[in-house]
Amino acid sequence: MPGAADSLASVGFYITTAISYVNGAPHLGHAYEAIATDVIARHMRQRAADVFFLTGTDEHGEPVADAADARGIAPQELADENAARFRALLPRLQVSNDFFIRTTDEQHVRRVQAVLQRVHDNGHTYRGLYEGWYCPRCADFKVENEILEGNRCPIHEIRLVREQEENWFFRLSSFQEPLERLFAERPDFVMPAVRFNEARAFVASGLQDVSLSRARLKWGVTVPWDPEHVFYVWFDALLNYYTALGYARDGEDLTDRYWPATYHVIGKDILKFHTVFWPAVLLAAGLPVPEHVFVHGFLLGADGRKMSKSLGNVLDPDDVLKRFGSDALRFYLMRDVPFGADGAVGMDGVTARYEGELANEYGNLASRTIAMIHRYRGGLVPDARTDPELASEFKGLRERVCELLDRADVTAALDQIWQRVRRCNRYVEERAPWKLAKDPAAAATLDQTLASLAEGLRVLTVLLHAYMPSSTATLLTALTPEREPGSNPFGLEGAEFAGRAGGWAVSELAPLFPKVAPPAPQAA
Ligand code: MSP
């Protein structure tokens, strides 16, 4: 975990999302995970950390093969089609990933084979007969204590299929002790704590060996020591985090620079794979395990139920992007759903946050601060000592935000910032610059008020940049248009409320969050 607050220059910070299945289209859950991960990655870059941010698609396995079959096309064709859709969504969300991995990349395939060959050579595999309850949607055999009544999948609630096959096994059971030790020594290996406890309890309940290969399936990475088999898709998929570093940059191997990963960000449904299987595979291959796995919750429909087209409670990221733009989508998701918990989301909630907080609070603070500087001081922020009382409200803010984001608590960090947005708006009301402007004796107080507001707004904008990259860039350009060449206005070292501010000119600012028309009524 990086040290609190200050510059992280030269610290390697490697952060990943789960890679998405390509048997369906991208939805809000994928957008959510990518956005939260992006907020952390951007924030760490603002602290000058050496960030590498990976996302991508998980393209092998039975569900993809089945979905392609159903459409009468080859699995690769389906994968190409949907991987392109996942990839195209990222820039629209302003996700700043450094690489996009596809598990059908030839380089990934070769590296998976090399790592798992090592696991095999190290004696952690054997051939055996597997019989168990299998969920075709999860592509996973379920162990007894996970299965719902009536032999149903705990996630999809569909009936499990009794499957039997000859395949290769991974000796997960022999990692019982090393994993117990890992959990005993590293209480922040899995975050938040409730997920740590869940993962630890899974280990404590006794680990059983898991199947490593499939004999029936063709759509996967061939097992190098037994080419009639392909690897079980989860092993191929998990390894993406490691393999990508080997080929993400032409002619350069980034593994030493970034491995082990600082954060894997995942949803709660794939906890077991990332917190139990994954460290065990790495240990079996003689590789270091990741520093943290952060497990977020699920986005639910506005009615609190699982989002589903048939219930009509799906919030489509496209609809939000078209109406409100990506800064608003990012802000809404990070603000409304405490990161780590489940949360109900819907268009009414987006509208309320957009109007109530983005337009009326932050947007309004920005436009009135800049407008008053134009009106009362000809567009020049007065060079003045800032108000110590307002300054004291910002004291420790940057450090607090850094500490929270070191723990991936994107919601709490945003709340810290937002409390100061509100404080600055109250400050405008308390100081009433429009009254001060009428009183020549209050000129110095007005100077101080405007300098303090400009400074507060600047600090808030630097801190909000990771959440809302484009509106903060527009605002900072208007607030501090003249910059020294080569300076980075968004460097986090600048998020410190200065004792003296001003002496610079501002330019015009169009409303950052303009009124959005209600959606046209749907035809019946
Ligand atoms: N392919 C696997 C992950 C392999 S990682 C080595 C997978 N793919 S997925 O497409 O089903 O999910 C990708 C991510 O999106 C997962 O972390 C999952 O938890 C997350 N989400 C999927 N639906 C979600 C919500 N409704 N809400 C929040 N996140 C959700 O699992």
SSE inventory with pairings:
Layout: E1 12-17, E2 20-21, H1 28-46, E3 50-58, H2 62-71, H3 75-92, E4 99-102, H4 106-121, E5 125-135, E6 140-142, E7 161-170, H5 176-185, E8 190-191, H6 193-204, E9 210-211, E10 213-214, E11 230-231, H7 233-238, H8 240-247, H9 255-258, E12 263-267, H10 271-284, E13 292-296, E14 299-300, H11 317-324, H12 326-336, E15 343-344, H13 347-377, E16 384-385, H14 388-394, H15 397-406, H16 410-431, H17 433-436, H18 443-464, H19 469-479, E17 500-501
Parallel strand pairs: 1-3, 1-12, 2-3, 3-4, 8-13, 12-13, 14-15
Antiparallel strand pairs: 5-6, 5-7, 7-9, 10-11, 16-17
Helix pairs in contact: 2-3, 4-8, 5-6, 6-10, 11-12, 12-13, 13-16, 13-18, 15-16, 16-18, 18-19
The chain binds 5'-O-[(L-methionyl)-sulphamoyl]adenosine.
5'-O-[(L-methionyl)-sulphamoyl]adenosine binds next to β2, α1, α7 and β12.
